[in-house]
Design goal:
The protein contains 11 helices and 7 strands. It is α+β, with helices and mostly antiparallel strands. The protein starts with a helix and ends in an 11-residue tail after the last helix.
Length: 297
């Protein structure tokens, strides 16, 4: 049901996002019009990344008060298309990747190339902000989706890596020196916005949403996804239809092995269930007409 809700919302962001407090929602039509671009400047899912970043840079350049923007790049999404005139350096797949998957398929090759393009354009965006003096007063975060769609095999002991995603934070030195991030703290996408609010000096918790700052040591650090993977500082849980699989940290927190269930496991499970339920409620409230979520006891 949650996937259906997200599918509806992704296809109607123009109505959903204003209900979340966003003042402007600029999609393909708006960006093409403001940059006077032809229809070929967009793929199946939206404008090419270079035009998206150009639109963001213009808004930062013209801003007369603090701005908060979220950008969704869509190039690295099936059917993995690229602009006709794009020119990228040749790359080779890392040996570690080839040892796992063997020879790259045509789809995997396209996935890597579109990911390379997205990274290249993001780097160009940061370089432009730096050259214009905007980067020294801008907090930037970058994250992404998991690698399941690439068909990379992961043994059971590496269950955390299968859905792992990066979170890269870039902040001016005056802000950066105030924090000492603990890179071992677990979290998930729910924590991105609270972390940005904290990093930018707005981390008093007075926002309406879920998650907590990964830079706040008082926050109970945990993460989860709708696939049943729950991660805390003491354990990793896998929730199945027939029960709960409990695991404990091993080998620098990356590999896991079976362990007995504890009160900490139960607490983590309840927190994650509550988070998913609250997420469903916020989404259904923001998109009238969607079915109300069933609240867990």
């Amino acid at each position: 049901a949650r996937d259906n809700v997200l599918g509806i919302l992704m296809n109607d962001l123009g109505e959903f996002l204003p209900r979340q407090g966003f003042i402007e929602v600029a999609g393909q039509d708006e960006i093409l019009a403001e940059q006077r671009l032809p229809a070929s400047a967009a793929g199946e899912w939206g404008v090419w990344d270079e035009h998206l970043f150009a639109a963001a840079a213009r808004r930062l350049r013209d801003a007369r008060k603090p701005q908060f923007m979220i950008l969704f790049t869509t190039t690295n999404h099936p059917p993995h298309e690229l602009p006709a005139a794009v020119r990228l350096p040749s790359i080779e797949a890392p040996p570690e990747l080839l040892r796992r998957i063997g020879k790259l398929s045509e789809v995997q090759h396209k996935q890597i190339r579109t990911y390379q393009y997205a990274c290249h354009e993001f780097g160009g965006f940061l370089r432009q902000l730096e050259q214009e003096g905007l980067l020294e007063r801008t907090v930037v975060a970058a994250t992404g989706d998991h690698t399941i769609g690439m068909g990379i095999p992961f043994p059971s002991r590496e269950v955390l890596l299968e859905r792992a995603v990066p979170l890269l934070l870039l902040a001016p030195e005056a802000i950066r020196e105030q924090f000492e991030p603990d890179l071992t703290r677990p979290g998930s996408h729910q924590d991105v916005i609270p972390t940005l609010l904290h990093l930018s000096g707005n981390g008093d918790g007075s926002f309406r949403g879920i998650g907590g700052s990964l830079l706040d040591e008082s926050h109970f650090a945990y993460g989860y996804n709708p696939g049943g993977l729950l991660i805390g500082e003491e354990a990793v849980l896998l929730e199945f239809d027939v029960g709960l699989g409990t695991m404990r940290w091993f080998d620098s927190g990356i590999r896991v092995m079976p362990s007995g269930e504890t009160l900490a496991h139960r607490d983590l499970l309840l927190r994650c269930r509550a988070g998913l339920t609250l997420t469903d409620w916020i989404l259904s409230e923001a998109a009238p007409g969607l079915p109300e979520p069933a609240f867990a006891e």
